[in-house]
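A reminder before we start the practical. When you read a complex entry, don't treat the lines as separate problems. The point of joint prediction is that each chain is placed relative to the others, so the output describes one connected object in space. Small molecules and nucleic acid strands, if listed, are placed in the same frame. In the example below there are three entries. Take a minute to note the order of the lines before looking further.
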Amino acid sequence: MNKDVIIGLFSNIKGHGPLVHHLTNNVTINDCANATLAIGGSPVMSTSIEEVADMVQLADALVINFGTIDDQMYEAMVIAGQAANTKGIPVIFDPVGVGATPFRTERASNFLNKVKVNIIRGNATEVYALIGGKAITRGVDAGELSISKEKLALEAADKLQAVTVISGETDVISNGISSVQIENGDIWLTRITGTGCMTASLIACFAGITDDWFSAAIAGMSVMSLAGENAKNSLQANDGIGTYRSKLMDEIFLMNEAVWEKGVRFK
Amino acid sequence: MNKDVIIGLFSNIKGHGPLVHHLTNNVTINDCANATLAIGGSPVMSTSIEEVADMVQLADALVINFGTIDDQMYEAMVIAGQAANTKGIPVIFDPVGVGATPFRTERASNFLNKVKVNIIRGNATEVYALIGGKAITRGVDAGELSISKEKLALEAADKLQAVTVISGETDVISNGISSVQIENGDIWLTRITGTGCMTASLIACFAGITDDWFSAAIAGMSVMSLAGENAKNSLQANDGIGTYRSKLMDEIFLMNEAVWEKGVRFK
Amino acid sequence: MNKDVIIGLFSNIKGHGPLVHHLTNNVTINDCANATLAIGGSPVMSTSIEEVADMVQLADALVINFGTIDDQMYEAMVIAGQAANTKGIPVIFDPVGVGATPFRTERASNFLNKVKVNIIRGNATEVYALIGGKAITRGVDAGELSISKEKLALEAADKLQAVTVISGETDVISNGISSVQIENGDIWLTRITGTGCMTASLIACFAGITDDWFSAAIAGMSVMSLAGENAKNSLQANDGIGTYRSKLMDEIFLMNEAVWEKGVRFK
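Here is the predicted structure of the whole assembly.
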């Protein structure tokens, strides 16, 4: 990891204004759009199979999020993903809930066969399921597994040939050769919905302005963990998760190279 | 009603972390997810007909909300509802807008024939429509009707064999034999979208950790009304419904046995 | 433009509580519902082809927003639009992203052939695409074009026989004969998602209580621009777009004839 490269991404992102096309779930879609705007990108969320390929032509990165997939959405995801591969823009895959039902696990496996994914972001059980492991997943939350997150990230990145981001108390990002661990974060990031999904959007924004996807993944993941920590520190007595949600978006918006360099903590 | 039972629910909910599967509308789905998290539950919102039955196997309670149903969603709701019945987890039904169009009224009737519903939460006109009454419903808002809410709740609970919750200025909860009325609340709860839907989620969280669905319904309904009142009291001059929304979520998050016991007012 | 007419709309809207039916995108649907409530209207968002015509019978205005259309949604939009035409309630059309893909442009053209639209609200490139112009559109954001916004609004209003609202740094509203320009606003209105969509909802609320759609359009557009400005002015150091979103909704809620008359600036 080269810190200066990441600092350069912060310097450039607002000027570039990367357009990030999302095919995502309908629970946190608004949060993803606002997180994209907050960091300096521009979100598009169309999902019609008749236009996703055309929309990808305008985009700098593509987010595929499995949160509320059905057959129609899946079909659109494959079309969009293949168009992104052809165009050469990065595909960021968020395998929400993979491992929880056979449907999700099969579709994820299918998707990885049809689309070249460049960055994967999930929790440990989701990533474990992606490489064929069987963890006890409970809905969309992380379950327990027997492999360490560090080893899992490295193995998944190597096996799937994609930069792999595992969110958690410590975040691990691996390119299959080396790994980085981020110590920032706050337990409250798990007490609101959408922080994982928004992380994928942030990573996609950075990936849309560089070919160095490892750095983009570290940048996006660390923005969420540091913003989540800063938002928590800005709370007052009697604030709860409603206020926290607003403050989190504020902190993503306020993030820049100076705030990042001062606050980020690698292990 | 036994207050100690409800206090026990507050003591247990965060430890249990009930998983609540939702098939709900796309207007307030994010609010429902966050309300579930705020009270201590874990939300899942998948709707694909290919996986809802499997997802129900992981869940402690199921919310069915008619807000933006179409044929495909309805089909998934029936599958999920029947899976919940088989598994023996409670089904909480929110008949949004029933009575407003023949489509909604017919589908609701159909649904009640196919799925055993354990708790119903609606406004007075929606519940009236469920038992065959014809009120003047205006969209998704409550219209006027000639039967008292107390009598309606009792009659509906008896007829539909489900704990029935009627939200309003005074909330009424009935199990068909006895009824409870909650005097908390604030008119501003009607000035933002989603408070009814979130109430169903809260009820489902409590219903996911007990077989005493009457107590669960009282707990969930009273959390929303008391939180709505506390949120209003916490506002400052020039705050409007944007701030109110955040504060409402804060107050749900801050709710516990002490806050509840001190603030709840039964008639 | 007659300022007294607009002041009259503010006096009447909360008493009338216009019911606004929306067929809109799933990114900002919650924001649209809350904006409708904030100004004094009542939102309905059902989209099933089996009931949209019935729901329109209950409504005072209809919003058609192309943000995340697919074939099924488009079909429902045509049914709802034609029902609104038959009933004689105003149709407000938000051509989100039109010009960005052939699919969108063709569907918009098709829609305008099948449904009589009374008010159009978009950014300059979207409106330009509606009248057959080819601008460089970039996703859902405004691109650049060679015609002035003033001339475009006038021409579009005349050609499409609909009051035309072009949102931007200066907002232009034209009825094809005369035009009005609003100088309020803030760049932060472009840094959160949904402000355009919410503007269409606000316009629809006013259009639901008068036949003077030109005044309704001016009222709705100016509420958003003035509220956006007031919200920005109410921010404190270290507030970002999370807090801004809440404050914007607060300011829409607090808007009335006095606030409007004091703050609005026409060019």
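Discuss with your neighbour: The domain at 3-263 of chain A is CATH 3.40.1190.20 (UDP-N-acetylmuramoyl-L-alanine:D-glutamate ligase). What might explain this?
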